[in-house]
Amino acid sequence: MKDFILEVCADSVESVLAGEKGGASRIELCSNLVIGGTTPSPKLYEEIRKYSSIRIHALIRPRFGDFCYTSYEYSIIKEEVRMFRELGAEGVVIGVLTPEGTLNLEAMYGLMEEAKGMSVTLHRAFDMTADPFEAMEQAISLGINTILTSGQKNECTEGIPLLKTLKERSRERIDILTGGGVNDRVIPKLYTAAGVTAYHMSGKEVLDSNMIYRKGEVNMGLPSLSEYTIYRTGEENVRQARKALDKCAVS
């Protein structure tokens, strides 16, 4: 049996439980998944732990946008890594870049010190680096366990050539976790073409709000997003992805 990982990114108790029931190996816990994910609250983590003991890796990202942070933002990131370590999270998902598009090694070293004893994933800041092979070697030198990447493309299927090369060059020194459009339909293709065995998905489904009265002329956030649309992980979406992985495992 091959050692597959199916990680589900989730930003609510409901999504975590759906991912677990669907067969996820672990959860990347975040907030605001609709904008790419930001740091979850400690209370969200604590509420999840009332109902689930699934392995949780907490995303540490103070805001939407790039990964070049101010000193204030970096201070927050360090404190949040420490906070989730003390809360008992099994891992953290982090990344800091220089303005030139390389890993900020000094900043990353500081975060690795705070994360001692935890599994560490370099998030998709990796996909914004100028030289992915240099970034991978730097991540390995820092002791990072996993790189989350779509192969530096919007969709993982478009990034297959780079994913394949990263997997080969990694020589099992670091896990290559494939994200960016992962579902049950693309997993067999990714496995066959790139040889990757770790996958990251949201499995999201679109739900309608329970609100009956709706104030259409007032917007509470991004004008492109409706306040009355809810995005949650679909248990069946995760289950189908897990079935696809299981088939690859015995092929």
From TrEMBL:
Keywords: Cytoplasm
Entry GO MF terms: copper ion binding
InterPro entries xref list: CutC-like, CutC-like_dom_sf
Keyword Endoplasmic reticulum in record: no
Major localization class: cytoplasm
Location in the cell: Cytoplasm
One Gene Ontology term, aspect cellular component: cytoplasm
Keyword Cell membrane attributed: no
Alphabetized Gene3D superfamilies for the sequence: Copper homeostasis (CutC) domain
Similarity comment text for this entry: Belongs to the CutC family.
HAMAP family reported for this sequence: CutC
Name this protein carries in UniProt: PF03932 family protein CutC
